[in-house]
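We were asked to recover a plausible sequence for a given structure. The inputs and outputs are reproduced exactly as logged, with field labels preserved.

PROBLEM: sequence recovery
POSITIONS: 409
GIVEN STRUCTURE:
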């Protein structure tokens, strides 16, 4: 006598045992409720046999359940081990492919590898060690450049501005705005040490200059690039120092600047020592902290390219918005250089922290810009190598050529 039994599916011993007992009880039920009118002799002969058979079946079922549980546990362990191995193999293969791709990759249509400038500015709060730490954090996040700011407050500000209160006293580091600015300044020797730290960790050092004295001081360090911020892009005496006494790249932002003023900037750099075509990077920028998305005006970058491509070395985007999605649009529109304010903690005291990226945000920005760069290419063949297997497997007319021929119109 044989009876089919479904394999128990509950996960623990108790539930498996209960399932087995329930199954057997349902089978024994008609025996226990044998109709009283049946022949007593037949009952006395068959009933013990049936009970013995079911008892043996119960023992075998319990043994099967225990064996099944052990088998399932072992299978689960093997499955987890195999899954972990496959995942690790996949990760290693992905890293190998990524390494090969990045080494051999070249974008089409003139898209260059993006460069991210971590604009530390004065977010170091006047503390040299914090400035060094921010450089290290920027490097670890994937930035190309760590940038600061240099001012000579007494040269830059009028006496009235110097002696006025900070417009937001909560963020001030001095009794007057001038004293606040003096407190945040690092001297030239400290900038030289920061440049040395950049060289040690594999990061490019840069600085924005606001006045002629600062331009001369930073130019004496001969960094690979110096930035002219939007407030200073009509300061011709300062820019003359950078044009005629410095040979590196000069990045110039165009926030709060008219189109005629931008033309004056480019024309100025086309004169005198050096060549704007080889040295100047023009940045699209809106001067606000932070800038709402509707005021980013990203298509101005398109206008800069249309008007000045061939007259300057390249283009960039200096963003004061929130988040990082806008930066990808800037790269797609031709901004090879991407500058974002950077801090360790957006809640620190100061004006720029709230509009800055923290390390996690900067890391994601660098990651996403690199991914965008890798996307900027055309297909080298109609069917890419990674598509070939999928085409053979999924494409109608490829995996079923005979049927496709019969149904062709």
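RECOVERED SEQUENCE:
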């Amino acid at each position: 006598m044989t009876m089919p039994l479904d394999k128990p599916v509950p996960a623990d011993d108790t539930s498996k045992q209960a399932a087995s007992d329930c199954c057997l009880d349902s089978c024994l039920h008609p025996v226990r409720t044998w109709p009283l009118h049946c022949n007593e002799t037949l009952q006395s002969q068959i009933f013990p046999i049936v009970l013995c058979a079911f008892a043996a079946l119960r023992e075998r079922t319990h043994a099967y359940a225990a064996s099944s549980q052990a088998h399932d546990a072992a299978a689960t362990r093997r499955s987890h081990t195999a899954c972990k191995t496959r995942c690790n193999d996949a990760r290693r293969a992905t890293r190998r492919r990524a390494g090969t791709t990045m080494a051999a990759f070249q974008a089409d249509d003139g898209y260059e590898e993006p460069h991210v400038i971590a604009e530390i500015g004065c977010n170091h709060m006047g503390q040299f060690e914090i400035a060094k730490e921010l450089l290290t954090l920027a490097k670890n996040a994937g930035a190309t450049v760590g940038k600061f700011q240099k001012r000579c407050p007494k040269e830059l500000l009028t006496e009235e501005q110097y002696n006025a209160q900070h417009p937001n006293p909560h963020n001030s580091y001095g009794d007057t705005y001038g004293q606040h600015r003096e407190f945040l300044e690092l001297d030239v020797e400290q900038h030289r040490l920061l440049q040395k730290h950049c060289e040690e960790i594999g990061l490019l050092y840069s600085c924005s200059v606001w006045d002629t004295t600062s331009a001369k001081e930073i130019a004496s360090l001969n960094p690979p690039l110096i930035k002219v911020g939007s407030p200073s892009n009509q300061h011709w005496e300062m820019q003359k120092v950078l044009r005629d006494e410095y040979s590196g790249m000069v990045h110039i932002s165009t926030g709060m600047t008219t189109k005629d003023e931008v033309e004056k900037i480019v024309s100025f750099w086309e004169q005198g020592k050096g060549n704007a075509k080889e040295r100047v990077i023009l940045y699209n920028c809106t001067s606000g902290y932070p800038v709402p998305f509707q005021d980013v005006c990203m298509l101005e970058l398109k206008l800069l390219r249309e008007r000045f491509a061939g007259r300057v070395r390249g283009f960039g985007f200096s963003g004061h918005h929130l988040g990082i999605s806008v930066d990808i649009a800037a790269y797609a529109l031709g901004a090879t250089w991407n500058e974002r304010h950077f801090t360790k903690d957006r809640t620190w005291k100061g004006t720029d922290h709230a509009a800055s990226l923290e390390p996690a945000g900067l890391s994601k920005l660098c990651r996403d810009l690199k991914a965008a760069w890798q996307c900027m290419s055309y297909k080298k063949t109609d069917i890419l190598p990674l598509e070939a297997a999928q085409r053979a497997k999924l494409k109608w007319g490829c995996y079923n050529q005979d049927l496709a021929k019969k149904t062709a119109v």
